[in-house]
Design a protein that fits this description.
Length: about 725
């Protein structure tokens, strides 16, 4: 910590930050040897430097978050496009386009411990703290729009079921075990979220390539005191993309920090993650017009029924300076609201309003965590709260109560008209009762809607995810109950899952109704079809959230001595202009010479990287270089694995020979002069059409995954 000038040790002192001191500010002349009796003697109690250093170290950890322990965050800014939200809300940061609001956003997985891998199958947290001119507002959301349970009182059960089993603390960061599926199979309300979690949405390619959702229905309040129901959305400008399940398994070993590193490096490179902020709005008078209850967090509002209006943009443009001080100590709370935004009676949200503050008390050690820099509002804080563990503020004067006359009545309350927070004046009445509303009882319509909105490839991935997750379940009764539950979503899916996990479909009492048009078992509590709903929602398919931008993608470039310099440089330049990073990979680290004058530095050796960390692969020509690569098993493995994961492969001039060496099932060798495009494999024998080749590569990268290859490579190991 800097001392002010009056505290300088000497007039010409260069500044105390350069010198090692104790926490009392005393300069230290040796931090490598403890104070001993003789150089081989026992350590002395009086070694205050040793004791202070060790005591601090012993207390360096705080309890990790019970959920969302593994996370990464970034600073940024948010701004609305215009003042059009004024008719719905008085929140200044949502209505005044001249205000740039600082934000801090933390992304996380839910289940794994703090040191677990980024690429596990899981929901992702997407929590944003807006440091607004009216105080802090937190939007603590997820990358999926619905949640497992309807009432927060079930949250401890859900989390206990999915966390590692208590007797042996296994498995880490995974739902694929008996206790989780035991719970799910007994809780039909979870099935809609389960469909999301078993889809590729649970395997995001990047935090900048996933949507964010506030999940609950909130209320917006305008300056006349009128309320509207609202759901909040984040739409990434980089589009929505996922990696494959097989890749996630391998990335967990090759780079467990995959998403964290991607976020960090993108920001360092100036490729700032950007998200548009969207709202869906429903009038209070329309509360009961829908086939689902607006207060039920297992339901989404189909965008085809209630469009998302994009009202502003968030840009994440600065990495934290210190992980612990900022990312670990940041404390979110859905109850951090500003005037113009209010909560609803959603029983899941109501439980959260209790839980977050409560958890911060144990995690951050007391009630003064709001004084930690990352949690401090950017506006003045003034109240009569005092003292407590680790209090930082030095309150002056003798008045710490209200009303008072000795302090001129300050701090004073603020009238509503001048920006004081007033809760929405909602009329509520009813008997005290532990009961679920009947309007919450339809658990299957939206799960089916989600499934029916997926592409055939996405459906296949959901099936494979069920096969993996339930295949790991040991208790047959749980597997059977799960098949029964899935049958309520889609009969064909249930039958195929049953086959793959060795469940006798007919033995478990599922009766397919003859002539049932939608092939779903009819739920007696199915919603009123006369109310607003849709059977298919295209907005739920990732395919419909692609972006034009390729920025942030990474291409593996395989090189050996003697590569074609011109082809490589032209390709690299083309990728650079798109914001795509090319990474040179070779047998060993060092420098390589092509057929030109310049040398190229190798970024990674085969030992230090893996194909699963890239979005595609490119090999330029050059006779000696191709001859060398074709004998390198690691290079051939990278090509085969890239092929298996359906990513773009570009082979030019002599590199086309690699088609014969690698095992690209279904790909015919190219003998033509023109660019040959075959299931995302771009090859060109004659490099006179080099520009066409690079453009074809770009287009194939834009398509991202060439799923037609999956038919050829089913379960073939790379
Ligand atoms: Fe959380 N949740 N949650 N949650 N949640 C926490 O708060 C809780 C829920 C979410 O990056 C905890 O500070 C209950 C839904 C995110 O720091 C804890 C219920 C959604 C984060 C907690 C829910 C979320 C948390 C753990 C059911 C999406 C990470 C540490 C009633 C809308 C925030 C902490 C960060 C964290 C409780 C359900 C999102 C224990 C009781 C639904 C993104 O307080």
């Amino acid at each position: 910590m800097k001392q002010d000038d009056t505290n300088s040790r000497k007039d010409n002192d260069p500044g105390s930050e350069d010198h090692l001191t104790t926490n009392q500010g005393v300069r230290i002349n040796n931090t490598d040897d403890s104070l001993k009796v003789g150089s081989r003697g026992p350590t002395l109690m009086e070694d205050f430097h040793f004791r202070e250093k060790m005591t601090h170290f012993d207390h360096e950890r705080i309890p990790e978050r019970i959920v969302h322990a593994r996370g990464s965050a970034a600073h940024g800014v948010f701004r609305v496009y215009d003042d059009s939200m004024k008719k719905y809300t008085k929140a200044r940061f949502l209505t005044d386009p001249s205000i740039e609001t600082p934000v801090f956003t933390r992304f996380s997985t839910v289940v794994g411990f703090r040191g677990s891998a980024d690429t596990v199958r899981d929901v992702r947290g997407f929590a944003t703290k807006f440091y607004t001119v009216e105080g802090n507002y937190d939007l603590v959301g997820n990358n999926m729009p619905v949640f497992f349970i309807q009432d927060g009182i079930k949250f401890p059960d859900l989390v206990h079921a999915i966390k590692p089993e208590p007797h042996n603390e296994m498995p880490q960061a995974s739902a694929a075990h008996d206790t989780f599926w035991d719970f799910i199979s007994l809780m039909p309300e979870t099935i809609h979220t389960i469909m999301w979690v078993l889809s590729d949405r649970a395997l995001p390619r990047s935090y900048s390539m996933m949507e964010g959702f506030g999940v609950h229905t909130f209320k917006l309040i305008n300056s006349s005191g009128e309320a509207h129901f609202v759901k909040f959305h984040w739409k990434p400008l980089a589009g929505v993309y996922s990696v494959t399940w097989d890749e996630t398994q391998k990335i967990a070993g090759a780079d467990p920090d995959f998403n964290r590193r991607d976020l960090w490096e993108s920001i360092e490179m100036g490729n700032y993650p950007e998200y548009e902020f969207g709202v869906q709005i429903i009038n209070e008078s329309e509360e009961f017009d829908f086939a689902f209850d607006l207060l039920d967090a297992t339901k989404l509002w189909p965008e085809e029924l209630v469009p998302v209006k994009k009202i502003g943009k968030m840009v994440l443009n600065r990495n934290p300076d210190n992980f612990f001080a900022e990312t670990e100590q940041v404390a979110f709370h859905p109850g951090n609201l500003v005037p113009g935004i209010d909560v609803t009676n959603d029983p899941l949200l109501q439980a959260r309003l209790f839980s977050y503050l409560d958890t911060q008390l144990i995690r951050l050690g007391g009630p003064n965590f709001t004084e930690i820099p990352i949690n401090r509002p950017h506006v003045d804080v003034s109240n009569n709260q005092r003292d407590g563990h680790m209090r930082q503020t030095v309150n002056k004067g003798r008045v710490s109560y209200s009303p008072n006359s000795l302090g001129d009545g300050k701090p004073m309350t603020t009238p509503k008209s001048e920006g004081g927070y007033v809760h929405y004046n909602e009329k509520v009445e009813g008997a005290k009762i532990r009961e679920r509303s009947i309007s919450f009882k339809d658990h299957f319509s939206q799960a089916t809607m989600f499934y029916n909105s997926q592409t055939p490839t996405d459906k296949k991935h959901i099936l494979e995810a069920f096969e993996f997750e339930l295949g790991k379940v040991e208790a047959m009764a749980i597997r059977e109950r799960m098949v029964e539950l899935i049958a309520n979503v889609d009969i064909d899916l249930a039958k195929e899952v049953a086959k793959r996990i060795n469940v006798e479909y007919t033995s478990i009492g599922i009766i397919e109704k003859a002539g049932d048009a939608d092939k779903n078992i009819k739920d007696p509590l199915a919603p009123d079809k006369k109310k607003k709903s849709v059977d298919v929602s295209p907005a739920l398919s990732q395919e419909n959230h692609r972006a034009n931008s390729l920025k942030g993608r990474k291409i593996a470039v395989l090189l050996a001595e003697g590569f074609n310099d011109n082809e490589y440089k032209t390709f690299k330049k083309h990728m650079d202009t798109l914001g795509v990073k090319t990474v040179v990979i070779s047998k060993m680290l060092g420098e390589l010479k092509g057929n030109g004058a310049d040398k190229v530095s190798v970024d990674k050796s085969f030992v230090t990287t893996s194909s699963v960390l890239y979005d595609g692969l490119y090999v330029p020509g050059g006779a000696a270089h191709i001859q060398a690569l074709s004998k390198q098993g690691d290079a051939i493995h990278m090509i085969n694995e890239t092929y298996k994961h359906c990513k773009v492969i570009g082979l030019i001039s002599e590199a086309v020979n690699l088609l014969g060496v690698a095992d690209l099932s279904g790909i015919k060798e190219s003998n033509t002069d023109g660019v040959n495009i075959n299931m995302g494999v771009i090859s060109l024998v004659d490099s006179k059409d080099i520009t066409d080749f690079n453009t074809s590569f770009e287009n194939a990268l834009r398509r991202y995954r060439h799923w037609d290859r999956e038919d050829y490579i089913e379960h073939v190991p790379a």
